[in-house]
Amino acid sequence: GAVVSQHPSRVICKSGTSVKIECRSLDFQATTMFWYRQFPKQSLMLMATSNEGSKATYEQGVEKDKFLINHASLTLSTLTVTSAHPEDSSFYICSAGESRDLYEQYFGPGTRLTVT
Amino acid sequence: AQSVTQPDIHITVSEGASLELRCNYSYGATPYLFWYVQSPGQGLQLLLKYFSGDTLVQGIKGFEAEFKRSQSSFNLRKPSVHWSDAAEYFCAVGPTGGGNKLTFGTGTQLKVEL
């Protein structure tokens, strides 16, 4: 099946710094990628949708200047958390979809971000 | 607005016993429904999906789900649970908000007793 990887799996950064998370589709071309945030014991909350070569579409309440998303190729999307603060600590999950089956998303293993 | 409710936060079953995880949705049209499983340190894996047609859907790992429009439900079932089924299970509905976005329930943590 389709495989999506994320790197790093865990990252600890200091408050005020920026951190980049990569999401890669390993064996298929992902025209659309999604970024989610998951709080403990809570559901996945969609942050943004990105289409290759286009600007990301952010969900209401998500700061686009804080969570920078780039989808420069059909196999790579990146999420950069800028000027991170402790409240940004969370589990970030990406997913990718092929254009021929838009409603099936393949999920990455997630990245645990801790901001100290 | 679309929403998904998974009433059970935690469920514990004995290995070999049957399992049913509940999912109720609120959606203004015919929904697309999904069940995903998440093991620790891993991404979500699609178990099964319902788009249309037969309301009883077969999935991977011996799981099945039944779409009941009258009850706005899409419960996940397995006749005999294995210890490896212990994981977090998410129900999702789509498309929501336009495009191909999904709305997820809060998840049900399944524990399997040996």
Q: What does this entry look like structurally?
A:
- With 116 residues, chain A is an all-beta fold.
- In chain A, 0% of the residues lie in helices and 52% in strands.
- Chain A is built from no helices and 11 strands.
- In chain A, strand 9 and strand 10 (106-107) form a beta hairpin.
- The mean pLDDT of chain A is 90.
- With 114 residues, chain B is mostly beta strands.
- Chain B contains no helices and 12 strands.
- In chain B, a hairpin with an 8-residue loop joins strand 10 (87-94) and strand 11.
- Chain B is globular and about 40 Å long.
- The relative contact order of chain B is 0.32.
- The interface between A and B is medium-sized, with 24 and 24 residues.
| Tertiary shape of chain A | globular
Pick out the low-confidence regions of chain A. Answer: none
User: What percent of the residues of chain A sit in helical stretches (DSSP H or I)?
Assistant: under 10%
User: What's the gyration radius of chain B in Å?
Assistant: 14 Å
Terminal CA distance of chain A reads 37 Å
Q: So how many helices of chain A?
A: 0
Shape of chain B: globular
Largest sheet of chain B: 6 strands, mixed
Name the beta content range of chain A: over 45%
Estimated structural class of chain B: mainly beta
**Helix/strand order of chain A, N-terminal first:** EEEEEEEEEEE
**Number of separate strands of chain B:** 12
Question: pLDDT average of chain B, as an integer?
Answer: 91
Radius of gyration of chain A: 13 Å
Order of helices and strands of chain B: EEEEEEEEEEEE
What's the number of helices of chain B? 0
Q: Structural class of chain A, please?
A: mainly beta
**Main pleated sheet of chain A:** 7 strands, mixed
